[in-house]
Amino acid sequence: MTQLIGSHIRDLHELLRTKKVSAKELLQAHLTHIEKLDPGEIDAFLCLTEDLAIQQAQEVDDKIARGEPISLLSGIPVALKDNMCVPDYPTTCGSKILDGFSPVYTSTAVQRLFDQGAVCLGKTNMDEFAMGSSTENSSVKRTRNPWHRDYVPGGSSGGSAAAVASGFAVIALGSDTGGSIRQPASFCGVVGMKPTYGTVSRFGLVAYASSLDQIGPLARSVEDTAIVLNSISGHDRRDSTSLKDAPGLYQGDSHVDLVTALSHSPQELLKGKRIGLIKELIGEGIEPDVRSAILAAAAVFEHLGAKVEEVSLANAKIALPVYYIIATAEASANLARFDGVRYGHRAQADDILTMYMHSRQEGFGPEVKRRIMLGTYALSSGYYDAYYKKAQQVRQLLKQDFETIFQTVDCVICPTSPVSPFKFDEKTGDPLSMYLTDIATIPANLAGLPGISLPCGLTENKLPIGLQILGKQLSDSTVLQVARAYEEATDHKDKQPPTSARMLS
Which of 90, 98, 156, 233 is 20 to 30 Å from the Cα of 14, by its Cα? Predict the structure, then answer.
């Protein structure tokens, strides 16, 4: 089992292709690993989709038996954040209000993985409706960080990040509204990417904030991330925000295969690259260990031949309030559909208005209620222009800042999070302190940019630190190339959480 657990996509593909292992054996190894070590230890999964997985694995084995070629993702076990629709299985978004709800259709991004032969292990835990940075807001349970069980895994895709870091899944999908893929990737010591807004369909993703949400992969390497992104990207007519002229990802103005684009040495990948270091995100408020790791990463890039220079994101500090006005306003509108009438939890009441009120009061957790109230206030008569409209105008200023920066550099680097993983309950009593953990990731969502987080070191307490790389719109390939160069030139990708090492012994 040690050969199968913790391996990368290409290695597993070779084992499957040469019939050294079957897809069902690969699946069973991961299910055994999950069933033995997830419950009560990490708690990454909310439910397993074992019947579906067995069926999918059998289809892959049948294809191999017939001598047909298989894709890189055929037979590869994948975990899905529980806000992506899979028919006949619960989609709860970590909320009581969706108890008992099973969708009748499949999310486009998920279906594209299934079309490539990926095998669905189950649905992972998350902050309720993706509102949180620690997975402490789930109504079901808390997911623990594989590096230290007393610490949070980040959020809101904490379950997906912990599943990959623990070896429960080879790859996972998460959603990123203000950093919810990249921040838990940083906290769990894995790779997580938010692609350019519109390159991956949001159809079948339960919406939090529609102009910010984006599906993306979590994996243990940049190459595995690229393989998944290649498969799930492309136009979808069922998503009105899906880019029609972006059937794949880009390098410059031309379509490329992301995996092929990574097949060069670190020096070749960085040849002629100019990298900006965002000075506002390495100064005050950044933990010393985090700052040191980012500056060390900048030195690695310079050693490999890239030109690194400080750049200024002048409006970085106002990104946080802008985000929390726009995101909560959109959440207020999106979550209005959860009223106890059509699906999910319904309170018992004598009249319909009381039923609406009690269903939402009983079904939503405190963080979701807080954000709905903030958003409803920002959209209310007399306040719309002062708050929501003004926030959208300032959002444009942030986009202009990035446009100015990308006139002189190819990408920018900064910490994924200003802090390392924190202990459970350390920030729950102070929502503003929790919100500040997303200060480095939020700008990419507001501007619709691609961003990736990958491991770049450990704190004194042996907890992961994430390096964030951001690029201009549709420069996802460039972001991946720069990330790959750093990954290949360092040994951070080889470090495993102590929990995983113990699990595999």
Answer: 233
Q: How many CB atoms lie within 10 A of CB 101?
A: 18
Report helix, strand and coil shares of the chain as percent, to nearest 5: 40, 15, 45
Could you read off the pLDDT of 447-485 as tens digits, one per residue?
999 999 999 999 999 999 999 999 999 999 999 999 999
- The confidence score (pLDDT) of residue 260 equals 78
How much is the pTM? Answer: 0.95
Distance separating alpha carbons of residues 206 and 97, to the nearest angstrom: 13
Return mean pLDDT, the chain: 94
Give the pLDDT of residue 505: 52
Is 156 known to be catalytic?
A: yes
Task: Please report the pLDDT score of residue 139 as a whole number.
Answer: 96
pLDDT category, 344, cuts 50, 70, 90? confident
Active site (annotated) includes residue 495: no
Any alpha helices (H) in 151-287, and if so which ranges?
Answer: 158-165, 182-188, 222-232, 258-261, 266-269
Contact, 262 vs 484, CB < 8 A? yes
Q: Which two tokens stand for residue 429?
A: 């009593």
Distance CA 65, CA 17 (A): 10
Name the catalytic one among 107, 156, 175, 475.
156
Q: Which residues contact 18 (CB under 8 A, 6 or more apart)?
A: none
Q: Does the annotation count 194 as an active-site position?
A: no
Given 81, 123, 273, 427, the catalytic residue: 81
Short-list 90, 199, 188, 166, CA closest to 450: 199
